[in-house]
Design a protein that fits this description.
The chain has about 170 residues and is an alpha+beta fold. The chain is about 30% helix and about 25% strand. β3 and β4 form a beta hairpin.
Length: about 170
C-alpha cells in the first residue's frame, strides 16, 4: 500500500483551536517526554506553543504540522530535535496525531518525511525513542524506516524506551 501524501509545515496561529483539541487529550500526551506530558488546559497555551515553535524552527529541526490534501486541518505534528542529554548531538524524531486521524498511515509518512529532511541536512542518524507499551508508535517507527535496536533504560529520557535508528552508512 502506498503511504499517504503528507506535507510538513509550521503550524499557523489560526490553527490553535485544532492544536488545543489535540494536546488537551491525555490519551495523546501520555506518551510525551516528562516535561510535556501534562495536557493543555486552555487554547492560549496552544497559541503560545505555535508562536514558540515558529521562533525555534531551524530547518529541519523543530515542530511542524502534518497536513494532508484530504483534510482541512492538520492531522498532527512531527518533531525533529536534538535529543535531551545527547552525548553526540543526536537528532530525535517524534510524532503525534489527533485521534480522528489515527490509522491512515499519516504518522509513518510524516516521520519518514522528517527523517529524509534530516538526512538531507547532514544528520546521518535519526533516532526515535518510543515508550515500550506504545505499540502503535513502535509500528509507526518501523513503517517509517527506522530499525528497532531494542529496549534501553534512561537514555535521554527517564524510564524504559524502545530505541529506533536509521542511518545512511
Amino acid at each position: 500500500m502506498e503511504p499517504p501524501e503528507v506535507t510538513l509545515r509550521l503550524w499557523h496561529p489560526e490553527e490553535a483551536p485544532r492544536l488545543f483539541d489535540l494536546l488537551r487529550r491525555p490519551e495523546v500526551t501520555r506518551w510525551f517526554g516528562e516535561s510535556a506530558r501534562a495536557p493543555l488546559t486552555h487554547v492560549d497555551q496552544a497559541r503560545a506553543r505555535i508562536a514558540q515553535w515558529a521562533l525555534d524552527f531551524d530547518a529541519p529541526l523543530g515542530t511542524r504540522a502534518v497536513v494532508t490534501p484530504d483534510r482541512a486541518e492538520p492531522v498532527g505534528s512531527v518533531l525533529l530535535f536534538h535529543a535531551p542529554n545527547a552525548l553526540h548531538g543526536e537528532v530525535e524524531v517524534g510524532w503525534y496525531l489527533h485521534p480522528d486521524a489515527v490509522g491512515h498511515g499519516y504518522a509513518a509518512a510524516a516521520a519518514a518525511a522528517a527523517v529524509r529532511e534530516a538526512r538531507a541536512a547532514g544528520h546521518h542518524e535519526v533516532w526515535a525513542l518510543v515508550h515500550p507499551e506504545n505499540q502503535r508508535s513502535r509500528a509507526t517507527a518501523t513503517r517509517a524506516g527506522l530499525r528497532d535496536l531494542g529496549l534501553v533504560q534512561g537514555l535521554w529520557h527517564d524510564g524504559p524506551s524502545q530505541l529506533f535508528v536509521t542511518d545512511d552508512r
